[in-house]
Design a protein that fits this description.
Structural class: alpha/beta
Bound molecules: NADP nicotinamide-adenine-dinucleotide phosphate
Strand order of the largest sheet: 3-2-1-4-5-6-7
Radius of gyration: 17 Å
CATH architecture: 3-Layer(aba) Sandwich
Number of domains: 1
CATH superfamily: NAD(P)-binding Rossmann-like Domain
Length: 246
C-alpha cells in the first residue's frame, strides 16, 4: 500500500532487527509512514528502510541518551508530520545470576528497558495530548509475570513497563491517548539467539501452539493495539505467547 500526506505516522524504537523490524514492515504495508530508530546496526536499518520504499525514515537513537528521544521526536515531526503511534520496542536482554550482578549492570538493564520507555513517552506525549490523539504500545515480556532464573534485572524492568503502562493510561486517557502493552513469550530473534539450546527447547515445549510466536505475529499484536480496531482499549496487556502462560 502506498502512503500520502494523510497517512498516519508511527515512531518505532529499535526497528533495525527482530520484532521491531517486523513492526516497521507491517505498519508500512498497512499504509503508515514509519520512522524507526537504530542503535548499532546502520546497515540493517538501511536495508529495512529500503524494503519500505519511501514509507520509512531511519534515525539513530541510543536509549541511554537522556535527550535523544526528544531530539528524535522533533525531527520526525519536522520531516514527516504529527506522530500518532509510538512503539517502545527497543530493549536489551542480560542473562546472569543476581548474586553475580554489579550495580552497573543492574542500572543499565533497568535504564535501557524501563528508563528508555519513560523518556520516549515523555518526548511524544505533550504533542499527542495537545492534539487529543495518540496510541502507545510498549513491548513487555512473560518474564515480567512468570519469572525466569537469570533474568532478574530484565524481569524487573519489564514488570516496571507494565506498571508504567497501566498508570500512564490513567493519566492520559481523558486526552484520547491510549497506552497498552504486548507481553511476549519466546520469539526467535538475535536477542534470544544466545540462550542455550536446552533453554530454547524448554521454552518451545511450554508452548501449546506448535507454531510458536514469530516476529510477524508479535508485530500483528502491536499493529492491532495501534489501530482504531482497539480504540476502546487502554491500560491493558495483550499476551502473545503461543499458550505458554495459559
Ligand atoms: N525475542 C523475544 O523472545 C522477546 C520476548 C519478550 C519480549 N521481547 C521484547 O521485544 C522487544 C524486541 O526484542 P527483539 O527480540 O526483537 O530484540 P533484538 O532482535 O535484540 O533487537 C533489539 C532492537 O533494539 C535496539 N537496541 C538495542 N540496544 C539499544 C539501545 N541501547 N538504544 C536504542 N536501541 C537499542 C536494537 O538496535 P540495533 O540493532 O541498531 O543495535 C534492535 O533494533 C524488546 O523490548 C524485548 O525485550 C522479546
Amino acid at each position: 500500500m502506498s502512503t500520502n500526506a494523510e497517512s498516519p505516522i508511527a515512531l518505532v524504537t529499535g526497528g533495525s532487527r527482530g520484532i521491531g523490524r517486523a513492526v516497521v514492515l507491517l505498519l508500512a504495508s498497512r499504509g503508515w509512514r514509519v520512522a524507526f530508530t537504530w542503535n548499532s546496526s546502520p546497515e540493517s536499518a538501511r536495508a529495512v528502510a529500503e524494503e519500505c520504499g519511501d514509507a520509512a525514515l531511519a534515525l539513530p537513537l541510543d536509549l541511554a541518551d537522556r535527550s535523544g528521544p526528544a531530539r528524535v521526536v522533533a525531527e520526525v515531526e519536522d520531516r514527516l508530520g504529527p506522530i500518532t503511534g509510538l512503539v517502545n520496542n527497543a530493549g536489551v536482554l542480560d542473562s546472569r545470576l543476581l548474586a553475580m550482578s554489579s550495580d552497573e549492570i543492574w542500572d543499565r538493564v533497568i535504564d535501557l528497558n524501563l528508563g528508555g520507555v519513560f523518556r520516549c513517552c515523555r518526548a511524544v506525549l505533550p504533542r499527542m495530548i495537545r492534539r487529543r490523539k495518540g496510541a502507545i504500545v510498549n513491548l513487555a515480556s512473560l518474564a515480567a509475570i512468570h519469572g525466569v532464573a537469570g533474568l532478574t534485572a530484565y524481569s524487573a524492568a519489564k514488570a516496571g513497563v507494565l506498571g508504567l503502562t497501566r498508570s500512564l493510561a490513567r493519566e492520559v486517557g481523558g486526552r484520547n491517548v491510549r497506552v497498552n502493552a504486548v507481553v511476549l513469550g519466546y520469539v526467535e530473534t538475535s536477542m534470544t539467539s544466545d540462550l542455550g539450546e536446552a533453554v530454547r527447547e524448554k521454552l518451545r515445549r511450554d508452548e501449546s501452539l506448535r507454531q510458536g510466536v514469530s516476529p510477524e505475529m508479535a508485530a500483528a499484536a502491536v499493529a492491532h493495539l495501534l489501530s482504531d480496531d482497539s480504540s476502546s482499549t487502554t491500560g491493558q496487556q495483550l499476551v502473545v505467547d503461543a499458550g505458554t502462560s495459559g
